[in-house]
Design goal:
The chain is an alpha+beta fold. The protein has 2 domains: about 220 residues, no CATH class; about 90 residues, no CATH class. The chain is built from 9 helices and 7 strands; from the N terminus they run H-H-H-H-H-E-E-E-E-E-E-E-H-H-H-H. Strands 1, 2, 3, 4, 5, 6 and 7 form a 7-stranded antiparallel sheet that branches. The longest helix has about 45 residues.
């Protein structure tokens, strides 16, 4: 009878005891991230009197910041929440009533599942749109198209029927270097790949140097251009707001299309394969870090020690996760290990640790 009476009350107690710290932590972490972002753009905002644009830019960056910080925020929220519950003796009281660790974990599982789904949906459908818009606001209204130096670095632009990638674009000379152009037909099938050492704007079109052209499928043969190419639907104005090849700016469908295009032309997509797996692994890490936080929080300690202990463990676990992810993702992108392993290995390692700690605790 005591279990049936206590379990619903315990669920509500643990649920709100964890949800409130988690929401406070994610809000605090997001604010710190935005302040750091604002500091990076402060000089450009003040120099160009673009306060409103700066506010819009920061607002557009909120979804990206939240999705990146959600897993570690959940870990910190769980550790802080259980520290507060332990300080008041609620966890010991629930265990004394015969409520199992699994029953105590049910509210956390619910919160972690919702956080995982939220992270994936926002990363897939919201972040690509807001990131692109944020970059447009940054370049056109905050930086006013003027960055330090003439080089804009790696640049990607999609036009009506082409996909243009340049290793570098010099805005002063209006010249792209190491250019690859993917041409599509009306049915969005890749038909032609053209590579050139450079392309300079002549005022009316692009003049290419050392062009190599490859035909795919049944596309009619096209002689490589020897001078100005009038058929490229692209102007220097289009390159003023380039979109970098950043997987965070792609949805899964767009990233899969980009990977397929690279494979069709014989280029190695290893780096983007690892980033594609990361789009699944990162939301799932909410469950893993929540499990780690739960497993580290259930051992009863003196009330004056539990809070400081949980803060230290939260910092150590969060740092450990990002450290492992940094190494494995680099190895996955470079091909030292499979792409999926680079993204998923931290979840596998920490998930195994969490399960082991939970089972050992149940046996005590």
């Amino acid at each position: 009878m005591s279990k049936r009476i206590a379990a619903p009350t315990a669920f509500s107690l643990v649920f709100w005891g964890l949800l409130e710290p988690f929401l406070l932590v994610i809000a605090a972490f997001t604010m710190v991230h935005l302040l750091a972002d604002a500091a990076d753009q402060f000089n450009d905002v003040t120099a160009n009197s673009a306060a409103l644009a700066g506010i819009e830019y920061l607002a557009l960056r909120i979804p990206y910041a939240m999705t990146k910080l959600l897993p570690v925020s959940l870990l910190a929220g769980v550790m802080f929440g259980f520290a507060l519950l332990n300080r008041n003796g609620e966890v010991v009281a629930m265990q004394a009533l015969g409520i199992s660790r699994l029953q105590i974990a049910l509210p956390l599982i619910l919160i972690a599942i919702v956080a995982t789904a939220f992270d994936f949906v926002v990363s897939e459908h919201v972040v690509p749109v807001t990131n692109r818009r944020a970059k447009e606001v940054l370049v056109t209204r905050i930086q006013r198209g003027q960055r330090n130096g003439a080089s804009m670095g790696e640049t990607w632009v999609r036009t009506r029927n082409t996909f243009v990638v340049a290793e570098d674009y010099d805005r002063v000379r209006k010249e792209m270097s190491d250019v690859t152009i993917f041409r599509f037909d009306h049915s969005e099938q890749l038909r032609t790949i053209m590579q050139a050492d450079s392309a300079r704007w002549s005022g009316q079109g692009w003049h290419f140097q050392n062009v190599r052209s490859f035909q795919l499928g049944q596309a009619p043969a096209m002689p490589p251009p020897k001078g100005t190419d009038q058929t490229l639907d692209l102007s220097p104005d289009d390159l003023a707001t380039p979109i970098s090849v950043n997987p965070d700016d792609f949805s899964l469908a767009e990233l899969n299309g980009f990977i397929a295009a690279l494979e069709r032309v014989g280029l190695n997509p290893q780096s983007y394969l690892a980033d594609r797996d990361l789009k699944y692994a990162m939301p799932f890490s909410c469950l893993i870090l929540a499990a780690i936080g739960f497993a580290l929080s259930l051992d009863p300690l003196p009330r004056n020690q539990g809070f400081a202990r949980n803060i230290g463990l939260a910092l150590a676990a969060g740092f450990g996760y990002w450290l492992i992810l940094g190494f494995t993702l680099s190895f996955g992108r470079s091909g030292v290990m499979p792409a999926w392993a680079g993204a998923w290995l931290p979840n596998i390692v920490l998930g195994s640790i969490a399960v082991s700690m939970f089972l050992m605790g149940e046996e005590k």
